[in-house]
Structures are given as structure tokens and as C-alpha cells.
Design brief:
73% of the residues lie in helices and 3% in strands. The protein has ten helices and three strands, in the order ααββααααααααβ. The protein starts with a helix and ends with a strand. A three-stranded antiparallel sheet has the order 2-1-3, with helices on one face. It is an all-alpha fold. It has one domain. Helix 2 runs parallel beside helix 7 and helix 3 packs antiparallel against helix 4.
């Protein structure tokens, strides 16, 4: 009984081993007669195609973002600029009415020095905001998507100082301040000359910075168009729409002042080859829309004027 049992078990094991050997031999023969075609390149091609297709909406979101953030930065710079005029007038003891892009003060009894202070404080405030935002852009947010907003705020802030400086002999806040202080014309012309030198240079530098925020797959024309030309033309049109209604002289000054964007366009063209920080570039974010909504809402709330009285 025992020897029969072991014989039967040995026979069973031998049969299994024979079957496994036979299957393995068939697999080897089949492998030897089959041409192996690697599938990795197909997988890579498929993934590349999917990535390219998914990035198309993102690229256009990146392209449109500078225009939206320019409008938001303009509203967050110009309206507070005017609010500082009104608050300074109020702190000096005079009432005023604050509108979205201008102030109507009532300084009937104000001295020339007080009137000059009210006029000059707006551009000085804008310069402080612009420099602060530039430092934050350079030191804190340069490698983050939020950096573009700080770059736009820096540009509009410094522009809102250099613009009135260039207009010292023509019109604007510094022209009013010099008039109230009875500053001699040569000094006004010198200030204007400094402004007309610094403002184009500054916008040229900003153009070189802005072009770095174009999608990496954009050529020179598209990159320059979405980062400078679109904010200049489309952004200025949107600003007039957001601030409407406006007195005719403010419409003219807004359109005329936007001409300095031309230097930003030139800067973007010449600096296009500058390496672009691809890791910081992003499409629209929720914060972009929230900030823009708040900025536009504040502008619209001031359309009918807010009275600051004692």
C-alpha cells in the first residue's frame, strides 16, 4: 500500500512537471518567433498629445491674464490716489467730494501751501505704493503667480508719479502744486524734462519684465501682443468703460497718457529672448477675479460721488 501510494504520487508529480516544461517550451518558442515592438514611444506620444491639448485653454488664460490684472491694478491705484487727495483735504479742515477719478475740494479758505499739499500728496502716495509693490515683487513674490499683480501695481503706481512729473509745465497734480507755490517756469520745465526722460525709460523696463509672463509656446509677436499691446489697447478701453462716465478732459488724458505704453511694447520686443520663469506662469486664478471684482466695485460706488464733510 505504501509503495503504491508513493509510486502514484511520483507519477502525478512527474506528469505536472512534464506539463509545465511543455508550456514553458511553447512560450519560449513563441517568443523566439515573435518580433517585439516596444510600446513606450506610443505611450509617450499619447501623453504628449494629451498634455498639449489640455494646455491650450491654459495658454490662452495665461495670455489674457495681463490685461485683466492691468485693469485691476489701475483701479486699485488711481482710485486710492484720488482718495488720498480727498482725505488730505479733509484732514486739513476742508470738505470735498470724491469721485472715481477726480476730487472736487472746497478749500475756499485754504492757504497756498495747503492747496499745494493736497495736489502733490496723490502722486507721492502712488510712488510709495509703486515702490513698495516693486520690492514685494522682487523679494517676496517673484517666483509666484501673484507676482504679476504686484508687477502691474508697481508699474501703475510709479507711472502715476512720473506722469504728473512730466506734466509739471503742462497740467496735472504737480502743475497745480507749482502754481499754488508760484514756482518759476524754468523749474517746471526742468521737472517736466526729467519726467519725460524717466517715464519712457521706466515703461521700456516694464515691457521687458511683462513679456516674461507670456506662455512659453508663444512666439515674439504673440508674446508681445498679449503682455503689452493687449493691456495697452484693450485694457485702456476697459478702464474707460469701468470708470464711465468721465469728464472729457479725463478721457483725453487717459488716452493720451496710454501712449507711453508704446515704450513698453518696444521693451518687450527687444527683451523677448530673456528666459521666462515657466514655473511662475499661471492662468487665471480665483484671486484674480476676486481682486478685480473688488476693484471695479469700489470704482462704481464712487460714480455718483462720496461727500467728505466736517
Amino acid at each position: 500500500m505504501m509503495s503504491g501510494y508513493f509510486f502514484a504520487r511520483y507519477s502525478s508529480i512527474s506528469s505536472v512537471q512534464f506539463a509545465l516544461r511543455h508550456l514553458f517550451q511553447e512560450a519560449v518558442d513563441r517568443e523566439a518567433s515573435t518580433i517585439y515592438v516596444p510600446q513606450v514611444p506610443l505611450i509617450v506620444m499619447s501623453s504628449q498629445f494629451t498634455q498639449s491639448a489640455s494646455n491650450m485653454p491654459n495658454a490662452w488664460g495665461v495670455a489674457c491674464r495681463p490685461t485683466l490684472l492691468f485693469v485691476a491694478a489701475y483701479a486699485l491705484s488711481i482710485t486710492p490716489h484720488e482718495a488720498v487727495h480727498a482725505l488730505t483735504s479733509y484732514l486739513l479742515g476742508f470738505s470735498s467730494t470724491l469721485f472715481q477719478m477726480w476730487v472736487n475740494p472746497d478749500p475756499a479758505t485754504a492757504t497756498s501751501r495747503q492747496l499745494a499739499t493736497i495736489a502733490a500728496v496723490g502722486p507721492v502716495f502712488s510712488l510709495a505704493v509703486g515702490v513698495t509693490c516693486w520690492l514685494l515683487y522682487q523679494w517676496r513674490f517673484r517666483r509666484k503667480p501673484a507676482a504679476l499683480m504686484f508687477l502691474m501695481l508697481a508699474m501703475v503706481g510709479v507711472y502715476s508719479f512720473l506722469g504728473p512729473l512730466a506734466g509739471s509745465a503742462l497740467g496735472g497734480d504737480f502743475n497745480l502744486a507749482f502754481t499754488f507755490l508760484d514756482v518759476q517756469k524754468p523749474v517746471r520745465y526742468m521737472a517736466s524734462a526729467i519726467g519725460f526722460v524717466l517715464l519712457p525709460w521706466f515703461m521700456f523696463v516694464m515691457g521687458g519684465k511683462l513679456v516674461g509672463w507670456a506662455p512659453s509656446n508663444f512666439g515674439r509677436a504673440k508674446a508681445v501682443g498679449c503682455t503689452t499691446v493687449a493691456p495697452w489697447l484693450l485694457g485702456t478701453a476697459l478702464i474707460l468703460l469701468v470708470y464711465w462716465p468721465l469728464p472729457s478732459f479725463l478721457i483725453g488724458s487717459t488716452l493720451g497718457g496710454s501712449v507711453f505704453w508704446l515704450f513698453a511694447v518696444v521693451g518687450a520686443i527687444l527683451k523677448f529672448s530673456t528666459p521666462r520663469p515657466a514655473e511662475t506662469i499661471s492662468s487665471f486664478t480665483g484671486w484674480d477675479f476676486m481682486i478685480t471684482f473688488v476693484a471695479v466695485a469700489v470704482v462704481r460706488l464712487l460714480v455718483n460721488g462720496v461727500r467728505l464733510t466736517h
